[in-house]
Amino acid sequence: MPDQSAPSRPGSQRAADSLVRQIEARIATGDLADGAPLPPERDLIEMFGVSRTVVREAVAALASRGLVESRPRFRPIVRRPGYDAALAAADGVVGHLLAQSGGVKNLYDTRIFFEASLVRQAARQARKDDIEALKRALDANEAAIPDSAAFYRTDIAFHAVLYEIPKNPVFPAIHRAFTAWLAPHWVKMPRSPERNRVNFHRHSDIYHAIRDRDPDAAEAALNAHLNAAWEYVRGTFEAI
Amino acid sequence: MPDQSAPSRPGSQRAADSLVRQIEARIATGDLADGAPLPPERDLIEMFGVSRTVVREAVAALASRGLVESRPRFRPIVRRPGYDAALAAADGVVGHLLAQSGGVKNLYDTRIFFEASLVRQAARQARKDDIEALKRALDANEAAIPDSAAFYRTDIAFHAVLYEIPKNPVFPAIHRAFTAWLAPHWVKMPRSPERNRVNFHRHSDIYHAIRDRDPDAAEAALNAHLNAAWEYVRGTFEAI
DNA sequence: TTGCTTTTTTGGTCATACCAAACGAAACCA
DNA sequence: TGGTTTCGTTTGGTATGACCAAAAAAGCAA
C-alpha cells in the first residue's frame, strides 16, 4: 500500500519530511516526552536550521500522523502514538467513505463480522474475571433500561468488554473506532424503554452463551442482536 | 475518538481548515474529478482569497487525509477516497506501533483472528465461483513452490481470495493493509522450496475444509498455518 | 512529424512582518 | 498572604514577496 502521507519513493527530498523523521526519532527515544509541548516553532527553526515554513509543515504532518496534538493557538503536545491514534488517523477519510453509498452498511457489516468472531472466541477462552466483568456490564445495562441515554452508554460499555477479552490492545481501539464512526448514524435510531429492554435481553443472551461456553449460541445471539439493530437504523439512510 | 487531524471543537478557526472543507466538498461533488490534478497553488490563492501559506497547508492536510496524492514537484492529484486510503492514512502511525514492543505480535494476532473468522465464514457461505477462485489461487501457489519469490506472491494472492469472498469492499482493503504492514518483517523469514511446500499444504488444507463446508476444520487449518508461520518470523525480533 | 532547446509555469523554501491569542510575571486588591 | 487583575512577552496563524529548481509547455530545428 502506498504511503501517501510521505510520498515520493526516490528519497523524499522535501526538507519537511526530513524534519518529520528527526522529530519522530526524538519522540520515539523519549527525548521529546509524551505529554510535553513541542518546542516553539522559532526554536525548532534554529535547532534544525530550516525556515519556519518547513517547521510548520513538519508539525502539521506530525499532527496528521497523530504524533502531536495541535490545537489552534496552543503549543502542540507530543503524543506517543497508540493504537487509537492509528485509527484516528483514518478518521478523515472514513467520514467520506461513510457518506458514500453503502458505506455505513459496509462498515457495520465489518463490525458484525468482527464482533461475531469476538463472542465466539470469548465463549471459548474468556476467563472467570472476564465473564464477571461482562456480568457487571450487563447489570449496568439492565439498570439503565428506563434511561435511553444511559442505556446507550452501558450498551457500548457492554460491547467494549467483549473487545477486551482477547487482551490484545488493538481490539479495544477497533471498538472505539467503530463506535465513533457509527455513532453519528446510531443516535438517530429511535429509542424507548421497550426497545432498550429488547436489546438488554439480546445482551443477556450473549452473556449467557459465553458463560455457558457455547460459541455457536454466542455468535448466533450476537448476529441476531446486531442485525436487528441494523434494521432500526437503516431507515435513517436514503438508499438501501 | 477525538479527531486530531481537525482539532479544536469550538469552531476550527484556522483558515486552512475552512479551505480543506471547501476542497473536500468540491472533490465529493466531482467538481474536482478523480485523477485530475489540483489547480495550481497560485490559482487556489485567488479562487479562495487566501494566502499561499494557507493554500499549501490545506493541500498538505488533504494529502495526509488521502484526498490528494502529492509527489514532490508535481501537481497534487485528486483522489476520491477509497477504503485503501483510509487504512493508508493510518500507515504512518502503524509504523511506530510496529516498532514498539509487541507491536508486530499484536497486529499479527489481529490478522490471525480476522482471517480465522474469514475462513470459517467462507466454509459456510462461499459460492461455487469463490471456491473455484480459491482453487485457482491454490494451483498457482503450488506451481510456484520452486520459486520462493513467486511463492510469496501467490501466497498473498491465495489469502486475498479469502478476503474477497464476503463481498465487502472493506475486507480486501484490510488484507492489503495487513500485508503491507507485515511485509517488512515477513520478507526476513527464511524461505526454501521445502518450506514453501509445507505452506502450500497448509493452504491446501484450508481450501479443502472450505470446499467441504467444514468451518471448524477451516478455522483450525488456518490457525495452524498462521501460527506456524509466526514461529518462523518471531526469530527476526529481539524481544519475545 | 519528430526531437531538442528555450521559455514559462509551478511547487519548495526562505525571510520578514503583523496580528491576536496565550502565557507569565508583576502589580494590585482583599 | 492569597487570589485576582493587568500588561508586556511569547508564540502560533496568516500574509507578502522573492528566489530556485524541476516540470510542463512552447518554440524551433531537423
Structure description:
The structure is a homodimer of 240-residue chains. Chain A is mainly alpha-helical. In chain A, 68% of the residues lie in helices and 2% in strands. Chain A has eleven helices and two strands; from the N terminus they run H-H-H-E-E-H-H-H-H-H-H-H-H. The first copy, chain A, has helices spanning 15-28, 41-48, 52-64, 83-89, 91-99, 103-125, 128-143, 148-164, 170-186, 193-211, 215-233, and strands spanning 68-69, 77-78. Chain A has a two-stranded antiparallel ribbon with strand order 1-2. In chain A, strand 1 (68-69) and strand 2 (77-78) form a beta hairpin. In chain A, helix 8 runs antiparallel to helix 9 (170-186). The first copy, chain A, starts with 14 loop residues before the first helix and ends in a 7-residue tail after the last helix. Chains A and B meet through helix 3, helix 4, helix 5, helix 6 and helix 9 of A and helix 3, helix 4, helix 5, helix 6 and helix 9 of B. Chain A binds a DNA duplex (30 and 30 nucleotides) through residues 13-16, 40-42, 50-54, 56-57, 70, 72-76.
